[in-house]
Write a structure and sequence with these properties.
Strands 3-2-1-4-7-13-14 form a 7-stranded mixed β-sheet, with helices on both faces. It has a 4-stranded antiparallel β-sheet with strand order 9-10-8-11. The protein is α/β, with parallel strands linked by helices and 220 residues long. It has 2 domains: 141 residues, 3-Layer(aba) Sandwich (Rossmann fold), CATH 3.40.50; 61 residues, 2-Layer Sandwich (Alpha-Beta Plaits), CATH 3.30.70.260. Bound molecules: ribulose-5-phosphate. The site of ribulose-5-phosphate (5RP) has 17 residues, from helix 2 and helix 4.
């Protein structure tokens, strides 16, 4: 199986985590695109979805799935389903490769549990091989980059990319993130940081991992 087939397999497997008639949270990316398509092709009855990006909103609407704003919810979402760029043995993740990290964290925060869908290439012992995305206020980018340099990171502006919220992204190379909750907390204190792409506080509770031998379920 190639990587796209592994992504499609976990997208289908995630249907088992969708309560009938619920409003769910939907992430962003190529794996989530497979999940959205599977919702439609399997005729899953949903009341609607809260979307983490304009890209996912368009795909949900194209399939006739209602998209709600967080303010329209009466309670919490039962589940948030999204991909990841890396996932560690505790379910902590790096996200934001698709530049949707801020809205992804907002929607994840509304959900009872995060179900991560990923192909096996995303599983790592320690986060940091994938450059850490950080959405920033543009004028703060140089000073945020300097703070990462003091930690041994090389922050590079993602060229030609502006998020759905109108901000640039720094991709930080060379980090070895042994303590994801601590680094997430630290970077959250820095002026000008909108969102850091470490999902430790909002880590996955379940990961459906696509492997050539089939979909493995990891519980955290
Ligand atoms: C977008 C994300 C995605 O979940 C992440 O980049 C994984 O994407 P893909 O499913 O395309 O591999 O965080 O901001």
């Amino acid at each position: 199986m190639n990587q796209d087939e592994l992504k499609a397999a976990v997208g289908r497997a995630a249907l088992a985590y969708v309560p009938a008639g619920a409003v769910i949270g939907v992430g962003t990316g190529s794996t989530v695109n497979h999940f959205i398509d599977a919702l439609a092709s399997h005729g899953v009855a949903l009341s609607g979805a809260v979307s983490s990006s304009l890209q996912s909103t368009q795909r949900l609407l194209a399939h006739g799935i209602r998209v709600l704003q967080p303010g329209e919810l009466e309670g919490r979402l039962p589940v948030y389903i999204d991909g990841a760029d890396e996932i560690d043995p505790r379910g902590c993740m790096i996200k934001g490769g698709g530049a949707a990290l801020t809205r992804e964290k907002i929607v994840a925060d509304l959900a009872e549990r995060f179900v991560c869908i990923a192909d096996v290439s995303k599983q790592v012992p320690v986060l940091g091989r994938y450059p850490l995305p950080v959405e920033v206020i543009e004028m703060a980018a140089p000073q945020v980059a300097r703070r990462f340099a003091a930690l041994g990171g090389d922050a590079r502006l993602r060229m030609g990319v502006v998020t759905d919220n109108g901000h640039p992204i720094l991709d930080v190379h060379g980090l070895h993130i042994e303590d994801p909750p601590a680094l997430e907390t630290e970077v959250n204190q820095w002026p000008g940081v909108v969102t850091v792409g470490i999902f430790a506080r909002h880590r996955a509770r379940v990961c459906l991992l696509g492997t050539p031998a089939g979909v493995r379920t990891l519980d955290f």
